[in-house]
Fold this protein.
Amino acid sequence: MPIELRLADQQPLERSDAARNREALLAAAQRLIDRCSVEGVTMDAVAHEAGVGKGTVFRRFESREGLMAAVLNRSETEWQAAAIGGPPPLGPGAEPMERLLAFGHSRLRLNLTHGALINAAGHAGARSYAAVSFSAMHVRYLLTAIGVQGDIPLLATALMAPLEVVILEQQVRTEQMDIERIQAGWDDLVRRVVAG
Amino acid sequence: MPIELRLADQQPLERSDAARNREALLAAAQRLIDRCSVEGVTMDAVAHEAGVGKGTVFRRFESREGLMAAVLNRSETEWQAAAIGGPPPLGPGAEPMERLLAFGHSRLRLNLTHGALINAAGHAGARSYAAVSFSAMHVRYLLTAIGVQGDIPLLATALMAPLEVVILEQQVRTEQMDIERIQAGWDDLVRRVVAG
DNA sequence: AGGCCAAACGGACCGCGGTCCGCTTCTATT
DNA sequence: AATAGAAGCGGACCGCGGTCCGTTTGGCCT
């Protein structure tokens, strides 16, 4: 009688060929994104580049958004690690206010450079929510550490919202604002919110 | 020799059948949106409902986003009129601060009810920019009237950003916040920003 | 009225995201 | 090593957004 003695390994185990294909697909996707733009990458192309059938791509990643989210997840995870445990001023060691400002600057840059990929990843399931959630949690923590009074979750959202890709693209692309100005504006916003 | 004596009528004139078809298409789209959801409306269905060919739909509205933007435009225009010239507290007659708060509440409600349509309209050309631009202009004007010091365009963006559909859907759908709380949070944000 | 031609029309056609189902392959068990 | 069956695989297939081009129509000029 098989008792499934995998410890707390929740997922029902992944077959070796499946794992190999997942890696191949992620690598293929990354390669194609680098070669053409994000928008130019088709699912058929990814499947072909990885040397698998199209069905396999969708089995692994659900949808195009899911695949993009998985690709995005790599750099995102790395960035999250830097925010939690990296060197100051982003990581611990600096004053909370300083960390918050560094966090915003970093996120702003990241959202501009990865904008296309973030858009392509869309709102695909838990992955994208995790990304949003991480930032929200971190900003909430920093606001609390600073000693801000009020509805912290909402204030955190208010600070993160102007850094959303849609907003930034509007400002940079359509209104021709330069990044320094946007950054300065965000710093100003933070100061006003914190001052209460 | 035809001198084209249309005054400042910039558009090169629209043929009567074209005008008829445009109206028919908008009406058909509206009808289908009411019947099914926005997401369930296909371009073929709109064409068929209006009794025209598919090519005609794309000739008139460029893309699905364009068509949705045109449908959205009707209610949006009406709302803009209310903001500029309607009764207080939204329209003129109330104090600027009161108007700003009313503006935010109204926009929040509107973005939630028309969320699907706004998303479907996407960033389709000048139409959507006009909508964004109107709100931005109005908020800038009110901030100036209140006497706020600083980079007004950026502050206006910072206030509008948390009212974006993406943000609101995240809060309401995923985080289960209720609307009163979000509204109160926005009021608080405005107060902090205005207080400087 | 008649005729000219730019503008508008319609629907066949294409590429892409996504699904489905019959076939193959891996792994656990004896 | 043999085997059973679950998990994975692949590619034909579908619907939708969007394009293209041969045909029709409406407006103007004689």
User: Anything to note?
Assistant: Chain A touches chain B at residues 129, 132, 150-151, 153-155, 157-158, 161-162, 164, 166-167, 170-171, 174-175, 177, 181-182, 184-186, 188-189, 192-193, 195-196 (CB under 8 Å). Chain A has two domains: 15-61, 64-195. The longest helix of chain A spans residues 64-85.
